[in-house]
Write a structure and sequence with these properties.
The chain is an alpha/beta fold. The protein folds into two domains: about 1-115, Rossmann fold; about 125-180, no CATH class. About 25% of the residues lie in helices and about 30% in strands. It contains five helices and eleven strands. It has helices at about 15-25, 55, 60-70, 75-85, 105-115; strands at about 1-5, 30, 35, 40-45, 90-95, 125-135, 140-150, 155-160, 165, 170-175, 180. A hairpin with a 2-residue loop joins β10 and β11. The longest helix has 13 residues, at about 75-85. Pfam families: GTP_EFTU (PF00009). Keywords: GTP-binding, Nucleotide-binding. InterPro entries: P-loop_NTPase, T_Tr_GTP-bd_dom, Transl_B-barrel_sf. GO terms for molecular function: GTP binding; GTPase activity.
Length: about 180
């Protein structure tokens, strides 16, 4: 994922920056937003079908439909985009100003959406990695993990490292910059 920052700077030339990305990094990019710089900066999702050319041109099924003038569902486009991003063969480009908080939410949504396992995450076997364990003042173990597939629910019992069984008594997830309780 490429984030073009400082679009709030006077005299910014986004076309030049995008061309530089194409020349120096990769031509396989998809511009995810349209930008209006005056009178104020407005970022909107790029819904133009031509923006999806980089996704369509490397998938025979989508390319045949496009050439035949058949409709292509947004779901298929997004799934192919996700596959190519995960394969590092396509790079979505987002714009913003980190200092002013412009474009940050679409960027975060992209990162969390594009790097989810493709397909039905919840229907797969439970698989994850524990990356931190700490103990609370009450002596309870707090386990931080990255879940790759499957679903955890409150009061589930899971095996850690194949042996130790652990009952889930509380779950929290990051959401909109905060850590909040959840049941699944």
């Amino acid at each position: 994922v490429i984030f073009i920052n400082k679009i709030d700077q006077a005299g910014v030339d986004l076309q030049s920056v995008v061309q530089s990305v194409r020349d120096k990094l990769s031509a396989d990019i998809i511009i995810k937003q349209t930008v209006s710089l005056s009178p104020e900066i407005v970022l909107e999702e790029n819904t133009d079908i031509e923006a999806w050319d980089a996704v369509i041109e490397n998938n025979d099924e989508l390319l045949e439909k496009y050439i035949a003038g058949e409709p292509i569902s947004r779901e298929k486009l997004v799934r192919e985009e996700q596959r190519r991003v995960q394969d590092a063969s396509l790079f979505p480009v987002y714009y913003g100003s980190a200092k002013k908080g412009l474009g940050i939410q679409p960027l975060m949504d992209a990162v969390t959406g594009l790097f989810q396992p493709i397909g039905e995450q919840g229907s797969a076997a439970l698989c994850g990695s524990v990356f931190k364990v700490e103990y609370t003042d009450c002596g309870q173990r707090r386990v931080y993990l990255r879940l790759y597939s499957g679903t955890l629910r409150l009061r589930d019992t899971v095996a850690l490292a194949g042996r130790e069984k652990l009952k889930i008594t509380e779950m929290r997830i990051p959401s909109k910059g905060e850590i909040v309780r959840t049941d699944t």
